[in-house]
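Fold this: 2-succinylbenzoate--CoA ligase
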Amino acid sequence: MTTMLNWLTKRADLSPDHDAVVLPDDTTYSFKELYDHSTTMAHFLQQKGIKYGDHVAVMSPNQYRFIVTIHALNMIGAVSFLLNSRLSRSEIAFQLDDGDVSAVILDEQYRDQVDHQNVIAIDACDLEESVAFQPISIDLETTAHVLYTSGTTGQPKGVQLTYGNHWWNANGSALNLGLYPHDRWLLSLPMFHVGGLSIVYRSVIYGIPIHLHDTFDVHAIHRDIMERGVTIMSAVSVMLDQLLERLGGERYPEHFRCMLLGGGPAPEPLLNQAKTKEVPVYQTYGMTETASQFSTLDDDNALDKLGSAGKPLFPNQLLIVHEGESLPANQVGEIMVKGPSVTSGYYKREAETAEKLEYGWLKTGDLGYLDDDGFLFVVDRRKDLIISGGENVYPAEIESVLKGHPDVIDVGVVGQTDSRWGQVPVAFIVSGKPVEDLDLDAYSHAHLAKYKVPKAWYDIDELPRNAAKKLLRHQLQARLGE
């Protein structure tokens, strides 16, 4: 067992007056204020019955109170289940049941999306009311969060992330990207995703402020970078594309030193455009199971290794494997990763955990290769996975829902190239009726998050399958001309 002071407690002691969170309207909270608000929230939640070890779901927009709530639950020692606010009622209900959640903390705007007997309004706590509260110490081996990620079987699974996973991820990132007293990290990614959540922890561990945005507003973010001292931003390709368009003929100031680009392989034309505009793009490879970044390009190689996700962060390890054998340079195989930021497994999924983790090595299911210098190039973000605007979309999950429609006999979902989102899901439907008569859009919106709803529907007499009845998705892809 390795314990340490609660990270926010320590940070508030070291640099109480330094900026912790900066909002677009110039409202600023110091680390001391963030600590006081978090202890007040912790006391409030404790009075509502939340205690150490409880599984507590949180559903909130990217607002200051979300950060406060994350820290407050850490201070109590509850396990946080951060809910994607874009999910449907049925998807949320599944996660609450599967995760054995005892209480849900939410912003009132999401009240109609959640059906749970113990709901606590996130805005019911008066943060200005100062109360005494003693945060518990952090045990690096204790689970801090369970974040659900879509599964290839059609059912999401909860990734267990410990405080140690977050601690090593933050330290590995700093050793790769460097850390400067003037650093300011812009956060517009959802904090219910690991990419956004990881920035919350880096802020208190590093002692640097978050510039928090509730949505991706390209003009507000452009202003933050140009005028408000932001040095680092985490983004996905669709964000970078819009920012480059907004940048036009301008150039970012010299203090902006890193556009950390994740969410899947970036289109080469986009990377070349960023290079032309002298935007410092550092591609990164990671996933929920690795607490965000795992392998990231560094400053010395950002231009020479365009398209690469760099090398594993310190002290991570990475192998390219095929049929149990490690492959030499420039051969494509499955990416396997190992390190202290890698999850210990999936909540209540012993069989899947055993299948994915062997002797600490995680089988990512992603394909890639290492070049002669040991730099990672990701070829595909998982077999069959669709990445739409940085969101992971699994065809099997959509198929599972659509097969519940009374007139759908069979269905196959694949990704179609889209100039804005990278990919969007489309569905091939086997039915006794034309797809336009099935009202599949309304059915899908009732059961799926908006970004998972197929953007096109195609009639097909029979889905292509092999002798084992496995769907041959590449044949469906060929019908799209891709």
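The chain has a mean pLDDT of 93. The chain has three domains: 27-139, 162-383, 386-479.
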